[in-house]
Design goal:
79% helix; mainly alpha; globular
């Protein structure tokens, strides 16, 4: 999670910075790497004590539903990255911790203590500060309305991301059980596959596959650069989501949201170095609040972790 998610964020922004324009293609890339997870899964079935989880109607519908939500989530973030700097988009994505905690509490009965609530409030305050500083980091050619739209899509995508975390843990608890780690790979393969199906339909209806060759020719540094950005984007997206699903299996929705917030300072600093994103005082303050909120969560929940 801490390596692949920041990398996929930077690659998404690189796609737009170097001339890419299609939100559907970037959404498609986010789930196109689903065969990678299957390469980890299939050899496990050769072991005598591991067998595929039987597909019941409820489990099949959960895969389809999560696949659709994942496709919608990827599209929201694609819109956000097209209008926001990578550092700003990353800071806003940290709000997924709040949504992960809320949905985890409502759906999976994850515990919420005062420290967790405090960290949620602090991180949300950081997002508000970013909104107040919108004039200083708007990319060239992006209007105030487009920036506001990107801000909105990022927050909505973060909310949906938190819901997906909670629903994924619910599937483990209610339908699959935490029997063996191979169920993590099974869920990821199936959810990414259905997300791939839904997104591919959108790409076809939008005629974006036909436009890919033209986009590759006009891409900065040429066609090879275009292909490499999409290829590594597919790999890092898949590994990041796989890591998130594994954290859900091993711990809880809230912990997955926390680690999702931890990547924020990593991505923000990397975006300043790689893309020379502006680092205003407001953004530094938001970054400090995000790290502070994460520290509050870790400190407040460490006794529970030790006892469990």
């Amino acid at each position: 999670m801490l390596v692949a998610f920041p990398a996929s964020t930077l690659l998404s922004r690189l796609y737009y910075s170097n001339g890419g324009t299609s939100r559907w293609i970037l959404s498609w890339v986010a789930v196109a790497g689903w065969p990678l997870t299957s390469l980890f899964l299939l050899p496990l079935y050769l072991r005598p004590n591991i067998s595929p989880t039987p597909l019941s109607l409820k489990l099949s519908l959960s895969y389809i539903g999560l696949g659709f939500l994942s496709a919608a989530d990827n599209l929201m973030f694609a819109w956000a990255f097209s209008y926001l700097p990578a550092s700003t988009a990353s800071l806003l994505s940290s709000t997924s911790l709040a949504f992960s905690a809320i949905f985890g509490y409502l759906l999976v009965k994850n515990k919420l203590n005062l420290s967790t609530i405090n960290s949620i409030v602090i991180i949300m305050a950081g997002a508000v500060i970013i909104a107040l500083d919108s004039s200083s980091d708007r990319p060239p050619g992006v209007s105030k309305g487009q920036y506001a739209l990107g801000f909105l899509w990022d927050i909505l995508g973060s909310a949906l991301h938190g819901l997906i975390f909670a629903l994924s843990e619910l599937v483990f608890v209610k339908l699959m059980g935490r029997r063996s780690f191979h169920v993590v790979l099974e869920q990821q393969v199936m959810v990414s596959f259905f997300g791939f199906v839904f997104t591919t339909i959108g790409v076809v209806l939008n005629n974006d596959f036909k436009a890919m060759r033209k986009a590759a020719r006009t891409f900065k540094n040429g066609e090879v650069s275009y292909i490499m950005v999409l290829l590594w984007g597919a790999i890092t997206f898949q590994l990041g989501v796989l890591g998130g699903t594994a954290v859900l299996f091993l711990t809880s929705t809230v912990m997955a949201g926390v680690l999702n917030a931890v990547r924020v300072p990593l991505t923000s600093v990397a975006a300043v170095v790689v893309f020379h994103d502006p680092m205003s005082g407001f953004k530094i303050l938001s970054l400090v609040l995000t790290v502070w909120g994460f520290g509050c969560y870790i400190y407040g929940n460490s006794p529970e972790t030790k006892s469990s």
